[in-house]
Design a protein that fits this description.
Layout: H1 8-38, E1 42-48, H2 65-78, E2 85-89, H3 92-105, E3 109-112, H4 117-127, E4 132-137, H5 141-148, E5 164-170, E6 176-182
Parallel strand pairs: 1-4, 2-3, 2-4
Antiparallel strand pairs: 1-5, 5-6
Amino acid sequence: MTSETPEPRSKLKTALVFSMLFAILGAVVVFGYFTTFRRPVTTIILIRHAEKIIDPNNPDVDLSAAGQTRAQEIARMFGDAGINAIYATQYKRTQETVKPLSDKTGVPVTIVNSKGTADLLVQIRAQHSGQTIFIAGHNNTVPEIIEALGGPKYPTIPETEYDNLYVVTVYRTGKAKVVKMKYGSPSQ
């Protein structure tokens, strides 16, 4: 005599397997939730260096008078913004752009290679997660950094534009949002 109903032991095994699978799935969901929200939000403020002296024979020029004024405006705008790190490239124009901000905040300027976007991002992610970082770059490196952070692709900034400011918010999920705005006197 065969019975169509499964044995009680078989039902118990099935219930136990489903319970274990449900518990594992729940643990994975909870783990994913907490690891996502444990990662802090990072804010990166990017600008192209301020106006520079035009000298075709010198690749490492100083800021012009207009550039020095713009650098002071940056210090005024961001001096109390909670900046945790300031980056500039090996060129004087980027360093001079952030010097007033560094002086006002007491945050030292970290010098990076203008061609080292990948290295810069590794350093930011390793040392400044959840912080506010200020970066002075160049007309070609600022869009490159934004894209590498997960933002949209921007074209190279025109040679005559110095008043663009980008705030990149990198969320816990790794996605980025960019707010582009103008600051200081309009570029000539």
